[in-house]
Amino acid sequence: MITSYIHPGAQLGVLIEVNCESDFVARTDDFQKLIQDILTEIEKAGDAATEAWLTDPNGPVVALVKPVVGKLGENMAAPRLVRYAGKGYVGQYVHPGAKVAVQVEFGGVTPAISGREEFTTLVKEIAMQIAAASPVYVSRDAVPAEILDKERAIYRAQVEETKKPANIIDKIVEGKLGAFYQQVVLLDQESVIREAKPRIKDVIAEANKSLGASVSVARFARLKVGEAAQ
What we know:
Layout: E1 2-6, E2 12-19, H1 23-26, H2 29-45, H3 51-54, H4 60-72, E3 77-85, E4 89-94, E5 100-107, H5 111-114, H6 117-133, H7 145-160, H8 166-184, H9 200-211, E6 216-224
Antiparallel strand pairs: 1-2, 2-3, 4-5, 5-6
């Protein structure tokens, strides 16, 4: 399961994946206490709490896990964490069942707007969007050039077989690239929450207009039990 923690003030947030072998053990007091003890160690470690620290065989988290494994008789591990601290406002969403969770860091958030309903609604909507639609990048600028070159090459190879003029092929390739952005770039995705399906960049723009602010998404992480972070 994935457990979340946000420090008062929402400047620090943690997602931690802790695994066992059965739902029965996951519901035990010992397993739940283990999760809380791991969160305590993460808080004590501060910036040193990285995934390498988390899985260090000689580290404090592995030392916490070992006796619980012995007591409950199931393999357990805490393989991944995401920790954001001190660079912006942190929002989270944990999907029912605690198998998928999202952490988002926002820039441009002032104390005056952090408690306003328009902003808290935006935070929830963006986090739920990431949980449901699995974007990989915040913006087009964040997509590595080698990824774009690979996609363009694939699309060009597909359409060159049609023997269309070069300028038409270029337009088709860029159109396909636009569809690629809609899949992997958060700001280009259509909202899965709203019936009208506006782009996420327009959802944020609408919120900023209402708030009189310049809120932006700085980074995000999506954890799904058993999968790599996105």
